[in-house]
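The records we work with from here on pair a chain with its fold. These numbers are not coordinates but entries in a learned vocabulary of local backbone shapes. To see the layout at work, look at the sequence and tokens printed below:
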Amino acid sequence: MGPSYRTGVNQAGVRNHNERLVLTLIHRGGAMPAVDIARRAGLSSQTVSVILRGLEDDGILRREAPLRGQVGKPRVPVALRPDGVLSLGLKIGRRSAELVLMDIAGEVRGRRHLSYDRPMPEPILGFLDQEAETLAASLPQTARERLTGIGIAMPFELWSWPEALGATTAEMEVWRAFDLAAAIAEFTSLPVLIENDGTAAARAEHVFGVDADLVDFAAFFVGTFVGGGLVLNGRVYAGPDGNAGALGSLPVPGGQLIDTASLYLLERALREDGRAPGMLWDPSQDWGMIEDRLVPWIETAAQGLAAGIVSVAAVLDCRRVVIDGSVPQTVRARLVAAVRARLAEGDLRGITPPIVAEGSIGPSAQAIGAAALPIFDRYLLEGPTAHG
């Protein structure tokens, strides 16, 4: 079968700063001729020519059809070769895990899903090992060698809320001292990078969202537990301990935001009615059959999110807030509309009301953000220079 994800690593290695800058400009701006790359990068034409030739030889870039109809020699745009860099992203959630295979252009080549009552290491590791092999086998042999790493998006301190998960403290305590990266290293040589799940969702919106010029925003992600992340000055800001933007812990009326805007509250209400909550972990399903419980949940979640947004805006002077989640698009739209309504009714004296927008990635944002981690680690840049 040839190389699998267990051994396949792109041998081109970590790129230097100028190579990363060139790749990032193309990643953000799309295919462009060398002269435009040189101008945006502030590099000489000769330097850019050498870099492009090397990246093309390494199979990361490709030349497209010349641009004609202009005075002078036709200019040849250079584009990312999607198969040139591939990565795996695993989201470990409280009720489900999702694994995606993604290329450097952000296209998801395949995904796998696992549902469970509570997140435990052994079945999640088995899922990763088996399904990563399946996804790698779907690639041409040469593409398997282009797998650059595995990104993991997971809640930090997963053991802190066992009651909300219907688990015992002893069951969840296994995570406290568990070395996930070391456990994964037992069955693959690919580099493993771990990030908070809310930060990963913010990264996905920042890198692959519809508004490429959005360089400062707070991102709320509504999952089993609500979380979030921050993008400041064009960079995903994780903080020294990786917990910056832990928006679920914001104090709001009724406790923390996690106590008012999380899907586990809707799950609990359904269970109290004797109804199976399985559709909540499959956002492709229509939630119309739970409208009686959905309406009050949206209202409560919107009140909590509005309070949290006011707090973020007061501290960061944050002008844009994005709300996404593991919910159907129609539910997300209703939630965002309700949040806007609550903000319009609130006391915002001394605060510039931020623009509240829907996220553009959807339920897979955490897994996609995780898959972006290894790619950025070796090939791309963050920050103002990444925007040309």
Observations:
- The chain has three domains: 17-82, 84-200+367-378, 210-360.
- The chain is about 40% helix and 20% strand.
